[in-house]
Design a protein that fits this description.
With 270 residues, this protein is α/β, with parallel strands linked by helices. It is built from nine helices and seven strands. Helix 5 (98-108) links the parallel strand 1 (88-92) and strand 2 (120-124). It binds S-adenosylmethionine (SAM).
Length: 270
């Protein structure tokens, strides 16, 4: 024991750092040096870089985008779970039901209060976009690419529903099912998570206007294809969001994240 004796050098004495020999094992172990050695090594492993590049380039963008969309849904249900934002899930543009099925699974693992409180409502024509105006015309968003069957999708989703989950699909063009209708008329209460995945300005605008009255503080709004139409400010989902937000100015949103090939996650705040 060195009771009473301090082993620390006196503050007036300069503290000498041991000099490390460059290239020595001790030198390489210094913090930061390991990273730089690894960097040097990796920067010479061309085959590894090429392999990584090939895997990324070879993965279909649709897969990357959908994976991003599923993770966005997971994030939305988790955030609303943490903040105890109760309410329904609304999806506009259901197509084959894959994102809706994912939403139902995410909700099952992030129950806000009592199970079954989140109802699942999906809107789609199940016949594509219908007649598009010149403004909405797009090389990929065509009826041919998005024809499905209401009964097949409904069967799929009803099968997927957990004991306490209710699913309702509303078939028809948004101009018929949303314009002039209230969410209450379909049994929709407050919205917990909304996914707008219908690509065009006219479609998205109908859906956003329809949702205005059920968006609450903490509702997560996922907008797919936010940067389509070459980023045009007055077209596509972004154009619809701007137009709607200018009118329904009482709703404020912050961006949580972006995902996939051009989707965004927003949260409504006070
Ligand atoms: C990109 S897909 C939806 C993909 C789906 N959310 C998923 O991830 O599996 C777009 C869907 O929106 C629907 N849709 C687009 N415009 C519509 C409109 N004006 N009225 C009704 N449905 C529409 C199409 O029928 C199509 O099924």
């Amino acid at each position: 024991m060195n009771a009473g004796k301090s082993l620390a050098p006196k503050s007036s004495e300069p503290q000498k750092q041991p000099q490390l020999q460059v290239g020595s094992a001790a030198y390489e172990k210094q913090p930061g040096m390991i990273g730089s050695v690894l960097f040097k090594l990796l920067s010479r492993l061309y085959f590894l870089q090429d392999l990584l590049g090939r895997v990324v380039a070879g993965t279909t963008p649709i897969l990357v985008h959908n994976l991003g969309k599923y993770l966005a849904l997971k994030k939305a249900f988790y955030l609303t779970f943490l903040e105890q934002v109760d309410g329904d899930y609304l999806e506009f543009g259901v197509f084959t039901g894959s994102s809706m099925s994912c939403a139902m699974q995410c909700a099952a693992t992030a129950v806000v209060s009592e199970p079954g409180k989140t109802g699942f409502f999906g809107f789609d024509s199940f016949a594509g976009f219908g007649d598009l105006s010149d403004e909405d015309k797009h090389p990929f968003f065509t009826n041919l690419n998005f024809k499905t069957s209401y009964s097949d999708v409904n069967r799929r989703l009803q099968k997927k529903a957990r004991k306490n989950q209710t699913v309702r699909l509303i078939e028809g063009f948004f101009s018929d099912t949303c314009d002039g209708h209230s969410p209450e008329s379909y049994g929709i209460g407050r919205a917990r998570v909304i996914l707008i995945d219908c690509d065009t300005l006219s479609g998205a605008l109908s859906c956003l206007k329809f949702c205005s009255s059920v968006i609450q503080e903490g509702t997560v709004l996922i907008l797919d294809d936010f940067f389509s139409y070459k980023g045009h400010q007055e077209k596509g989902v972004f154009g619809a969001f701007r137009q709607w937000n200018a009118v329904d100015g009482h709703l404020k949103f912050r961006q949580v994240a972006s995902y996939g090939m051009g989707g965004v996650i927003l949260i409504a705040h006070a």
